[in-house]
């Protein structure tokens, strides 16, 4: 290599690094703009329409300034106490489920991994069904201590206990093995689903309706209290995930190779599983089971913008929040004044993408 090449090589590398950073920033900016657009559509759409000028008037008045545009008082009430809490909850849950899916896909190095794979959602569902079927017994046992939060508390505890059992079963010589964790998750899923079916067979008609609606997911119960309840759990994952990006990039090379490059794989697995459990447990506890978001969104981001985990995780959070916000808008407007379960819409939107993933994997394996 000539002296000129030696001098220009650092400049080329610096230029490439800068270009990559600009590319990532542009991709995240595009996804952020999509999220803002989804929020505006959701705010303005509904049985009581709110135009953008009226929205500006509501916000400026709340900030203590003169209203920029006249609006009706009930529009203000609907915005602050019905639509905005629901949108905020959708953003948190959409971002949380998408990031959880991205983390699990990176951990298992499998694009078909999602939060339902290792028993988190199934455990939450079992305990939620248990709370619905035996709600009177538990309310009497706890003296009404949890009140209306009994279902949410039960679902969260079910998610935590399920993943704790899976993690303990995956240990070999004191260290958890990813393959064993996957097999343990499948086994626990089957067992938990059987127990859930047994409880459902014992339920009466009213309990069956509650189980069915809860199992399909809904943001209809969103309040500011609900938003503040899940914020610490999902917020912790969203704030901490950038610290895992570098380790996950190295883990993509293989567990042994990552360990040789200085990654503490045991700690990485524990951190990943803990963050996923907190996020999915909190989401299922307040909104029920919402499928396909954690499976499809990370795969789309990875295909569109590349495999770098700093972009995959952040992009999944933004895209998941936008997609769930739009899905919730459709769920409350398509059959108004009734409401479609949001899990139905995410499944309808996610299934074609899931089939595409399967077909692409099949072609890749065949080639």
| Main sheet summary | 2 strands, antiparallel
- Which sequence of SSEs, written as H and E, runs from N to C? HHHHHHEEHHHHHHHHH
Spatial shape: globular
Please give the number of β-strands: 2
Spatially, the strands of the biggest sheet line up as 1-2
Evaluate the radius of gyration.
23 Å
Low-confidence stretches: 141-145
Q: Would you give the CATH topology of the largest domain? A: ABC transporter involved in vitamin B12 uptake, BtuC
Q: For the record, what is the CATH homologous superfamily label of the largest domain? A: ABC transporter involved in vitamin B12 uptake, BtuC
| Helical coverage, percent range | over 70%
Mean pLDDT, rounded to whole units? Answer: 84
Number of domains: 2
- Category from helices, strands and their pairing: mainly alpha
| Cα distance spanning the termini | 39 Å
Sheet-strand content, in percent, reads under 5%
Instruction: Please tally the helical runs, counting DSSP H or I stretches of 4 or more residues.
Output: 15
Per CATH, which architecture of the largest domain? Orthogonal Bundle
> Which CATH first-tier class of the largest domain would you pick?
Mainly Alpha
């Amino acid at each position: 290599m000539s002296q000129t090449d030696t001098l220009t090589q650092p400049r080329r590398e610096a230029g490439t690094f800068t270009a990559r950073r600009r590319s990532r920033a542009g991709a995240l900016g595009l996804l952020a703009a999509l999220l803002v657009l989804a929020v505006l559509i959701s705010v303005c759409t509904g049985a009581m329409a709110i135009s953008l000028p009226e929205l500006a008037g509501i916000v400026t008045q709340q900030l203590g300034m003169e209203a920029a545009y006249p609006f009706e008082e009930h529009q203000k009430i609907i915005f602050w106490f019905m639509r905005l809490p629901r949108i905020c909850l959708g953003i948190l849950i959409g971002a949380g489920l998408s990031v959880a899916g991205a983390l699990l896909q990176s951990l298992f190095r499998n694009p078909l991994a999602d939060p339902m794979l290792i028993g988190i959602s199934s455990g939450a569902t079992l305990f939620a069904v248990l709370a619905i079927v035996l709600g009177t017994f538990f309310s009497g046992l706890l003296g009404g201590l949890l009140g209306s939060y009994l279902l949410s508390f039960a679902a969260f505890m079910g998610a935590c206990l399920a993943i704790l059992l899976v993690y303990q079963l995956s240990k070999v010589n004191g260290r958890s093995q990813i393959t064993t964790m996957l097999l343990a998750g499948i086994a626990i899923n089957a067992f938990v689903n059987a127990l859930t079916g047994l409880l459902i067979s014992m339920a009466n008609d009213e309990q069956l309706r509650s189980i069915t609606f809860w199992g399909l997911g809904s943001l209809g119960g969103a309040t500011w209290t609900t938003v503040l309840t899940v914020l610490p759990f999902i917020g912790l994952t969203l704030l901490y995930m950038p610290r895992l990006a570098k380790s996950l990039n190295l883990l993509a090379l293989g567990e042994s190779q990552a360990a040789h490059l200085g990654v503490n794989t045991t700690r990485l697995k524990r951190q990943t599983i803990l963050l996923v459990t907190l996020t999915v447990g909190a989401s299922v506890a307040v909104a029920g089971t919402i499928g396909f978001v954690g499976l499809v969104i990370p795969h789309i981001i990875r295909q569109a913008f590349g495999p770098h985990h700093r972009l995959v995780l952040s992009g999944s959070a933004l895209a998941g929040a936008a997609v769930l916000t739009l899905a919730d808008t459709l769920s409350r407007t398509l059959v108004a004044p009734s409401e479609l379960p949001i899990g139905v819409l995410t499944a309808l939107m996610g299934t074609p993408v899931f089939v595409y993933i399967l077909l692409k994997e099949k072609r890749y394996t065949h080639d």
